[in-house]
Specification:
Layout: E1 3-8, H1 16-27, H2 49-61, H3 74-83, E2 86-91, H4 99-112
Parallel strand pairs: 1-2
Length: 113
């Protein structure tokens, strides 16, 4: 029987929250830092819902930037899954518009891993 694991990209293979915070802080300098984020309605009172999603899309559209690198532990994490006979499926909530930048990032990430 094949074992499958689904691994999300953001905050599992790299630190999405920090990059996302940079974009959100551009909208409102008082935006709380990621250590205060406990749910996804954090935007309320700091920016519009549209601005919130626009910030998500900015990060995702620039995913292949050299500043966005995998966690150092990503290599051993994925290697341990593979060594234990897991089929690894990478998941993301990204818009299809950002597929190419995500694929380029994954290609670079795999070469680093």
């Amino acid at each position: 029987m094949t074992k499958t694991v689904i691994v999300d990209i953001d905050n599992t293979l790299w630190q999405f929250c920090d990059a996302f915070y940079v974009e959100l802080a551009k909208l409102n300098k008082d935006f709380p830092t990621p250590d205060f984020w406990t749910n996804w309605d954090i935007w309320q009172g700091y920016c519009s819902k549209d601005d919130f999603y626009r910030a998500v899309n900015i990060v995702h559209s620039n995913q292949d930037s050299d500043q966005y690198v995998p966690y150092p532990e990503a290599k051993s994490f994925l290697a341990s899954l593979k060594a234990n006979d897991y089929h690894i499926t990478i998941a993301s909530h990204r818009s299809p518009d950002h597929r190419e930048s995500t694929e380029r990032w994954l290609d670079k990430a795999w070469s680093c891993l």
